[in-house]
Amino acid sequence: MFPDAVDPAMLRHHGDVEARPGMVDFAVNVQGVAPPSWLRERLAARLTDLGRYPSADDELAARTAVAARHGRSPDEVLLLAGAAEGFAMLPRLGSRLAAVIHPSFTEPELALREAGVPVTRVILDRPYTLDPTLVPEEADLVVLGNPTNPTSILHPAETIQALRRPGRIVVVDEAFADAVVGSEPESVAGVSAADVLVFRSLTKTWALAGLRCGYVLGAPEVLARLAHGRPHWPLGTLQLEAIIATAQPAAVAESRRYAARIAADRAAMGERLTALGIDVHAPATGPFLLLRVADGALVRKRLADRGIAVRRADTFPGLGPDHLRVAVRGAAEVDRLIDALNAALW
C-alpha cells in the first residue's frame, strides 16, 4: 500500500549503492572490511561440513547460545538470515494498523506496505525524542529502532516500555545495540513478554554483511507466527556457527571493547566536523552520525567525485536533502573526509 506521498524507491534505498569500489566508505555502517581473524578461522574450520544439511542440533545450539547471551530460553529465539529477513516476516502478524517511528531504518515500513498492511508514520522532530503519546492508540504494531538509524538517538528503555498496550506488539530494531558503550544500556532484549519483539543483527559489529546473520527475541507463540511458511534449513552451517561464536561471553566482551573504540572515534570525528561548521546531531550513541549541511545533495556529489562515499539521508522519512549520514571511522579515514569536505563546502 503506497500512497502517492510514499516513494517505494526511497524506502528501498541503502547506503551500499553509494559506495563504489575504491571509495572511502562512510556510507555503510559495517565496522571493518572483514570479520576478526578468530571468527574467520572458526568459520573456515566448518567448511568441511558444508556437504551435509544443518541439523536440528546445530540450530538448537545456536538458539541456546543466543538465549544464554540475553537471559532468555531457547524457545524465545528465532534465528534469521539477517534482520532484514525478520522485517519481511512482520506482515505475518496480521496487523490492522502499523505505526513506524521515524526517522528510522525504512526496511520494516517497506515490508509492511508491500504486504498491504496499513502504515502510519510517526515522525519525530529534532531532537527526535520519543513521545509514546504520538502513536495512535489503534496501532496494534509499533516499530522503532534503538539506537535509531540514522539519528544515532538512544531511546530510554522506560519510554519504549510505555509504548506497550493490550493487543499491541512493540518491535524494537536493536541492530546497533552492541555498538553502544556499556552493557547495552536501554536494550529491552531481556524483556520476556508476548508483546515485545527485539531484532538483532551480526552484520555491523562483526563485519558479516555477506553472511546474513541475525535473530529475533520474543514469545514462542509470536515467533511461531513469524516463522509460519518458512522453508527447511533457512540458515546454513556458517550462519549458525557465526551466531554461536558471537554469542559467547568472550565475543560479547570484545564487542564492548569495540563499542568503546567507536565512542572515542565518534567524539573525535564529531569535533572535527563541527569545527568545519557542519551541524552534527548530538547526542549520538551509534556507529554513525547525522549531519546537516547546506546544499547536501551537491556536497554529496562533490565528495563522491573525490572518492568519498556518504549516505544520503533524505530517504528517511522526516529528513531532507541537506541531511547526510556518515559512519564512524578512524582518524586516517576521517582525515580524508575532512580534506574532501574542505574542498566540497567552499
Protein described:
The protein is an alpha/beta fold. The protein has two domains: 120 residues, Alpha-Beta Complex (Aspartate Aminotransferase, domain 1); 211 residues, Aspartate Aminotransferase, domain 2, CATH 3.40.640.10. It has twelve helices and 13 strands. Strands 2-8-7-6-5-3-4 form a seven-stranded mixed beta sheet, sandwiched between helices. A four-stranded antiparallel beta sheet has the order 9-10-13-12, with helices on one face. Helix 6 links the parallel strand 5 and strand 6. Helix 4 runs parallel beside helix 5. The N and C termini lie far apart (43 Å). 47% of the residues are buried. The model has no long low-confidence stretch (mean pLDDT 96).
| Helix-strand category | alpha/beta
> Which strands sit side by side, in order, in the main sheet?
2-8-7-6-5-3-4
Number of helices: 12
Question: SSE string, helix = H, strand = E?
Answer: HEHHEHEHEEHEEHEHHHEEHEEEH
What's the number of extended β-strand segments?
Answer: 13
Q: Count up the domains.
A: 2
CATH superfamily of the largest domain: Type I PLP-dependent aspartate aminotransferase-like (Major domain)
End-to-end gap: 43 Å
Shape call? globular
The amount of helix comes to 25-40%
CATH topology of the largest domain: Aspartate Aminotransferase, domain 2
Low-confidence spans? none
- Looking at the overall shape, the CATH architecture of the largest domain is 3-Layer(aba) Sandwich
Q: Which CATH C-level class of the largest domain is it? A: Alpha Beta
Task: Estimate what percentage of residues fall within beta strands.
Answer: 15-25%
Question: What integer is the average pLDDT?
Answer: 96
Radius of gyration: 20 Å
Instruction: Give a quick account of the main beta sheet: strands, pairing sense, barrel closure.
Output: 7 strands, mixed
